[in-house]
Specification:
By secondary structure, this protein is α/β, with parallel strands linked by helices. It has two domains: 268 residues, 3-Layer(aba) Sandwich (Rossmann fold); 175 residues, Rossmann fold, CATH 3.40.50.2000. The protein is built from 16 helices and 15 strands.
Length: 457
């Protein structure tokens, strides 16, 4: 540990959220900042903790112990999970930082970078007078949507208003707003997340200037702190896997045998569940489309039970020659494969930005939270996909897939997706917007380090 610390200038403490969709971008950021000369310590919970053997260049500290229950224990109520997570982590985090400050093996802490949903970090950093920066792992559009909900106390929303445009954000309908299945803890948690974001010294965003530049300008004007859109974080280290769940590399061999841009890749992330009826509608929609498809069916996908076992024999028999089902896949690698022509997704932000970065058109089936905002931007702002509205029906899935692969509308969507991929690639090159944001971020942290040293002299 001591060698890791002493050879580098600037010691950054990173605090990821244990949910896989949040852990992944934070670990990519850690890798990126390490490449810029910083020493990295990751303070994590024991729940879904990262595999330390994958990151020998980092130091790790664990907090929370056995106090934390898995996300599944909260019945899909993400706000209740986050509320409990923050309440149980604040004191252990404080104690951990004190221990690090007294330990000669660690360099002095230059900055704490925390996931915005780990808002307990803000109070502890302020108490210990440590400079802090927040990482937002969702889109700028989602942040604006949540701020509108927070300001107007729009929970819950009346059914008759769902199709109305959102005042001040006309890209969205009210039904597209980032709502959650339970409202009991939502107001409190959102307020804490916003306070932890607005009071940070800077905001790092896993997004791109070319996607959301007008929104970033608005956010900078409102928060009066610098914003650094450095995404997509996964593209800086494309061979660097951060998946907490197991992967099935064997599916890549199957993809190698498929025609270019012919396969529908289907995944609804690591958390979302569906009913058996929804599983069957999706299955037969895919089967009836006549396209080959690669489908991630997690063990607990169907309301906590094994989805594969609930697929009928007739489905397996009719799709055997053009279907592959896996329990989990290395998604970034799959989306980059030449055979993938469409991504049927729940539109979590990681999935959305990964698909954009690889130029893959999307078929959007959003369920909760930021997914609705992302899906609306995919289908109506960037126009690189189609959205399945409301109830999931096999006929609609079949029709949408055929549109993306065959119709003129689909051809134009494919063209725009490839053009957007080029913009992402340009952003990551030297002189591009994301590359420049990274450079500004590094200079900003170094400047703050210098100012702190001078003030303590």
């Amino acid at each position: 540990m001591e060698k890791k610390q002493k050879e580098r200038k600037g010691h950054l403490v990173l605090v990821p959220c244990p949910l896989p969709s949040h852990m992944s971008p934070m670990l990519h950021l850690a890798k990126l900042l390490h490449s810029q000369g910083f020493s990295i310590t990751v303070i994590h919970t024991q729940l879904n903790s990262p595999n330390q053997s994958h990151y020998p260049e980092f130091s790790f500290e664990s907090i929370g112990g056995s106090m934390l229950e898995s996300y599944s224990a909260f019945g899909g109520d993400v706000m209740l999970f986050l509320s409990e997570l923050n309440m149980k982590c604040e004191t252990p985090f404080h104690d951990c930082l004190i221990k690090m400050q007294l330990c000669s093996q660690y360099n002095p802490i230059s900055c704490i970078i925390y996931d915005s949903v780990m808002y307990f970090s803000a109070a502890v950093a302020d108490d210990l007078q440590i400079f802090r920066i927040v990482l937002r792992t969702s889109s700028a559009a989602n942040y604006i949507g949540l701020s509108i909900l927070d300001e107007n106390d729009c929970h819950p929303i009346q059914e008759r208003r769902l199709e109305e445009p959102v005042a001040g954000f006309p890209f969205l309908r009210i039904k597209d707003m980032p709502l959650f299945s339970s409202q009991k803890h939502t107001r409190k948690v959102l307020t804490c997340i916003f306070n932890g974001t607005k009071t940070a010294s800077a905001i790092i965003w896993n997004s791109l200037w070319c996607l959301e530049h007008a929104l970033f300008e608005k956010i900078e004007d409102e928060t009066l702190v610098p914003v650094f859109p450095v995404g997509p974080l996964q593209k800086y280290s494309s061979n660097f896997s951060t998946d907490v769940l197991s992967e099935e590399q064997s599916c890549m061999a199957w993809l190698d045998k498929q025609a270019q841009s012919s396969v529908v890749y289907v995944s609804t992330g690591s958390v979302i569940t569906m009913s058996k009826d929804e599983l069957l509608e999706m299955a037969w929609g895919l089967a009836n489309s006549d396209q080959p498809f690669l489908w991630v069916v997690r063990d607990c996908l169907v309301n906590g039970s094994d989805g594969v076992e609930q697929l009928p024999r007739e489905f397996h028999e009719s799709t055997r020659s053009r279907c592959r089902i896996a329990s989990w896949l290395p998604q970034q690698k799959v989306l980059a494969h030449r055979s993938i022509g469409c991504f049927l997704t729940h539109n979590g932000w990681n999935s959305t930005i990964e698909s954009i970065a690889e130029g893959v058109p999307m078929l959007c089936w959003p369920r909760v939270g930021d997914q609705r905002v992302n899906a609306r931007f995919v289908s109506h702002v960037w126009r690189v996909g189609l959205q399945l509205e409301d109830r999931l029906l096999r006929e609609e899935i079949d029709r949408a897939i055929r549109t993306l692969f065959v119709d003129e509308e689909g051809i134009q969507i494919q063209k725009r997706a490839k053009e957007l991929k080029k913009k992402v690639e340009i952003s990551l090159r030297q002189g591009g917007a994301s590359s420049d944001s990274l450079g500004r971020l590094v200079k900003y942290i170094r400047l703050q380090e210098t100012m702190i040293r001078l003030s303590n002299a």
